[in-house]
Specification:
The chain has about 210 residues and is α/β, with parallel strands linked by helices. It has 9 helices and 9 strands.
Length: about 210
Amino acid sequence: MIENISDSSVRRLSAYLRQLEHFSADGVAVVSSQLLARRMNVGDAMIRRDLALFGQFGRPGVGYDVDQLTANLRKILGTNMRWNTVILGAGKLSRALMEYPGFHERGFEIVAAFDIDPRKVDTKVGDIPIHHMDELETILAQCQARIAILTVPAEVAQQVTDRLAGAGIDGILNFATTHLETPQGIHIDQVDITAHLEQLCFHATNAIP
């Protein structure tokens, strides 16, 4: 296991991977750190430092083989294999997520959703079944999911998180507008759409005319 890697470095790896996929789609076989940096609007030294945390990639004076570096980043991030994923809450947001094809393309398989609304329980969104929350631990054991997406109301989010932690979930993507506590070893990524909009407002307000 690689330790002491900052979340910001991991986020940049994901961004590098997206850009490499664009290069590959455009037929680019080899890319320099300088070109990748220009496309990413970051310093090329930062790219080299981030990649050096995980090994030696590329050749000096030549650059990085796009397909090879893409494969290496997918392996580092763990997206070179399938990740069974569940969604907690079956409202409009979670239904949109269940219908998004990009998850499957990147190795994330949403295998089940959970809710307490009797109108939703025992229905499906596409091929994804919606179970009652009472079945959470049983279904998680059956489907061997390790990642959960949380879209439940804030007032029940911690309770649901505690159950997920006890059932063996390793990572939670949290859309609930509240801070969550988890045992050591379980990682939470917070999705705060309002904060992102506030940051856009700041840049728009302070843009040079």
